[in-house]
Amino acid sequence: MLSRKGLIPEDYLLTRLAEDVLQPKFKTKQRKARFVAKNGTCNVAHTNIREQGRFLQDVFTTLVDLKWLHTLLIFTMSFLCSWLLFGMIWWLIAFAHGDLDQKGDDFVPCVTDIHSFSSAFLFSIEVQVTIGFGGRVITEECVSAIVILILQNIVGLVINAIMLGCIFMKTAQANRRAETLIFSKHAVITVRNNKLCFMFRLGDLRKSMIISATVHVQVVRKTVTNEGEIVPLDQIDIQMDNPVGTNSIFLVSPLIISHVIDKNSPLYDLSAADLQQEDIEVIVVLEGVVETTGITTQARTSYLSDEILWGHRFVPTVSEEDGMYAVDYSKFGNTVKVATPSCSARALDEAGGMESVRLKESSGASVRRRTRHQDTKEL
What we know:
five-stranded mixed β-sheet, 37% helix, nucleotide-binding, disulfide bond, potassium transport, alpha+beta, Helix Hairpins, potassium, metal-binding
């Protein structure tokens, strides 16, 4: 989404294109529809909503949620309709009082210089937007005109408050800030600190920080309960590996968020072969407060099973140059292959962990070397 809108440097765009070419592609069965798209939009259609009136009970939120074209149309029509309505009222007041007829010099009209509906419409605009050209003036002759003057000013202020507030909220929506919060295209599963871990990378392209940033990760998949109930979208929370025990992060430079696949993880029984057959989706939600505006923002993405690379690791992007740390976003999504057991985390724990696997591999390699050495001597 960022590459289409041109919000990141060209060299990063080239890197993202290179990722599409260099990363391995897995031929898998037809996947189900994803729950959250890569750009963060939710792939959910709400149908058969019978109580449509509930949206009108929250008019302001409904106006903010509308498309820009519809919002600008309502913005324009709200002022035009109010001007026309009160223009009609001013014309009726002038008609009832006889101001439209030619009178003598001693006649005092309700509003001076109103001779037709056009002049009443112009006076309505002058009253509501407080232009005051000075040609048409209300007098103390008609009490009804004074009441309408007060009423139109109040209605105009209410319309200004609602519509300008709606325009402001649309321009300051939190999802605009989320355009510069980026996620790696692929997630990886590899060994970190002798534990099998699920990892992805996220970063912020702006210098202004996201305060109190938190990351929430869920696994969405179809499950069947013990009673036989089918849950098509079972959302299971997974805990991120954080030393302070929370999901808060300090997002100054790109971070690799890690989840240790242990016995409490929904990925505990997943092996490299099972990964390509399972219909799972990992949803990542980054939430925090924008430093410059104080508005809470949220960025989302998801990873399907064929977007999770087994046995890969992210390359470093931060280096120290001239006394400061430099971030190379051209390497943001790059990964390299590393030696990783293809078995599940459960099988790895049952085998005694990574240390036992390494000992078995080293002993097996020694046996193979001795066998080859003996075969060479016999020849």
